[in-house]
Amino acid sequence: MITTGDLRKGLTIVLDGELQKILDYQHNKQGRGSAVIRIQFRNLRTGSNTERTFMAGERFEDVRLERVTAQYLYEDSDSRIFMNTETYDQFPLSEANLGDAVNYIRENDSVDVLFYGEEPIDVELPTSVNLRVSQTDPGLKGDTATGGRKPATLETGLTVNVPLFVNEGDTLKIDTRTGEYLTRV
Predict the structure, then answer these.
(1) Most buried of 47, 72, 135, 168, CB within 10 angstroms?
(2) Entry pTM
């Protein structure tokens, strides 16, 4: 069992019999009374997001997840197919389970898949990935005085704001936690 003081982003707990991943939490302590914790969850089976409030000190059931390195093979109708790199077993993960991770993985990329028993439930991404720019408008000379930015569509379909010097075909390092441009590679 863990308490509200042990919570952090990315932790998976059991709440009302469902596996929930913590997306965000806020600790709020006002002048009188005890502290209140506001937590945003994603249900790992249905993909739905919820927000709930708890009193400080409440306890939650911790979940033990097994991490397996897997390679992303291809996209099926409403799921993505992965292969365990040790046993070569293939398994699907629904887009609801993947959430925003679909914007950061390409075919043949290796990621850590989290299993609850025999069930794949989530993907753990590296902190940054390198993606190629598939479409962006050219930067105009003279627009750099204000440190301008422009939208760029990456090879996975993700759109990020990038500096004006970035061109189509460039490879960019993107932060998977925030979805922001870090640097050109």
Answers:
(1) 72
(2) 0.79
At residue 108, what are phi and psi to the nearest 5 degrees?
75, 5
User: What is the tens place of the pLDDT at every residue in 109-152?
Assistant: 999 999 998 889 889 889 999 999 999 988 766 655 567 788 99
Strand-pair partners of 69: 112
Number of domains in the chain: 3
Task: Examine the domain organization and report whether 115 and 138 are in the same domain.
Answer: no
Q: Which domain holds residue 178?
A: 128-184
Domain boundary among 20, 46, 62: 62
- Using only C-alpha atoms, the chain has a radius of gyration, in whole angstroms, of 20
* Alpha helices per DSSP H over the chain: 95-98
- Which residues fall within 8 angstroms of residue 182, CB to CB, at 6 or more apart? 128, 172, 173, 174, 175
B/e letters for 131-149, b = 16+ CB within 10 Å, e = fewer, are bebeebeebeeeeeeeeee
| Segments of 49-176 assigned E as strands | 49-55, 59-62, 66-75, 79-84, 90-94, 110-116, 119-124, 128-136, 149-154, 159-163, 171-175
